[in-house]
Write a structure and sequence with these properties.
homodimer, about 260 residues, alpha+beta, Alpha-Beta Plaits, 10-stranded mixed beta sheet, globular
């Protein structure tokens, strides 16, 4: 028996999110399908982040346990060949790739052992939309003050009860205290990038933070209002939920000591 | 009654090509749907190029005749609002846009009055694929000699019988003589761009030319073989058909005198 940790990249556009669902194309479903073929047994994986439909990942992880013949370091190439075969257009490339595989101790779990994550959110702030980028960013034609967004974002850094940034209808009674390690908003030409890392994120938290900071950047709310919003613990006081296609799971943090065999 | 010429851009990824088909999402179908709403009558358009599924356009044109109230210069904004409403993801942008509209003489026809067209074909020549670009280029991991491709391409310039570059199974007895005005292959970093203009193109002609030149670039066929292939008039002697997602209709040429009211 082995426990394997995979690193996975995907373009979430044509997936109904990470989590396996009957009759839907999901990332977990695709990964489990090809691993089950390779390992000649039904494989179920534990993902680190249950990303929504349309959300992308540069550095998703999942772990799975199995008793199989294929060497662990051969899994990416073999799995990617199968993932590509399932792709719908010849001469193109797959929208999901396994970019790393390593054996980890049996007790290691991709989600429970995660020390935190970094997400980035991409905004294209330009008058004219670019249709070829429509599934990879939030298109905002009006000028955004990214420096105001950055300053307002500093109220979010630290340990807080982030109830206000959790999607309405999420699990009641959940512990809503999280620690945000850093939050940066930078601009490069038409592109504004929000980068946020923390020990954990509530459902839709990064997208609601982004929507709130976008409203600051548009001058629709003050920078200080972000602190008041956090204190209120009221979802209705926060901004809109930014659309999924701008969001990327950029990094999962693990403790190397816990990964050693 | 007015005759209107539209300029249209689209990302062909999620369309079953240009041409209207029952039960399929096509560019022509989408454009006719929104024009029919705006003009309050059933509108049928004549497109310049019947691009295949997955093929993109920066400068497609179509013309239509109707007796309607909306001012011609208002058509793009109004049509784009309707096209965006049909888009499947909030906060994103439409994959088809009308970027120009002008009234032309009644006898003007988007296709028959075209003096020629330019296509470009984008190849990404890099070892590692970029999944976010998978629908917008031909990914080729092995090194391509783009200078050899350019030199071989010069055999194609001029008036020739291009039977060898027409998809097998195309209309028999068609006149297969066309004039290619220019063909250039250039590189910028990982990107190789083939640009070709001519008075007309046979079915799949640009994609078969691209596939043939790719084989030259890989060293699988000689530069001179391209001249022999043209002389043979034999599709089997030409290269593979490059995939649709690298192809862009870049420009349609018209005689300004024929467009004047």
């Amino acid at each position: 028996m082995k426990n394997v940790l995979l690193t996975i990249q995907y373009d979430g556009t044509n997936f109904s999110g990470w989590q396996r669902q009957p009759e839907r194309r999901t990332v977990q479903g695709e990964v489990e399908r090809v691993l089950s073929i390779l390992c000649k047994q039904e494989i179920q994986v534990n993902g680190t982040s249950r990303t929504d439909a349309g959300v992308h990942a540069f550095d998703q992880h999942c772990s799975f346990v199995g008793d199989f013949g294929i060497p662990v370091d051969r899994i990416p190439v073999a799995a990617n060949a199968l993932l590509l075969a399932g792709s719908y257009r010849p001469g193109s490339v797959s929208d999901v790739r396994i970019v790393g595989a390593r054996e980890v101790p049996m007790e290691f779990h991709a989600r429970f052992n995660s020390q935190g994550k970094r997400y980035i959110y991409k905004i294209r702030n330009a008058k004219e939309p670019d249709m070829f980028l429509r599934n990879q960013c939030y298109q905002i034609p009006k000028p955004l003050d990214h420096e105001a967004m950055h300053r307002a974002g500093q109220y979010i850094v630290g340990e807080h009860d982030f109830m206000c940034f959790m999607a309405a209808g999420s699990q009641v009674g959940e512990d809503t205290i999280r620690t945000v390690y850093d939050l940066e908003v930078t601009r490069e030409g038409d592109w504004i990038t929000l980068s946020i890392s923390g020990n954990g994120f509530l459902y839709n938290m990064v997208r609601i933070i982004t929507g709130t900071l976008v409203e600051v950047g548009l001058g629709q709310r003050t920078e200080d209002s972000v602190a008041e919003t956090i204190a209120s613990r009221d979802r209705a006081k926060a901004g809109h939920t930014a659309p999924p296609q701008g969001l990327y799971l950029a990094k999962v943090f693990y403790d190397e000591n816990e990964m050693k065999l």
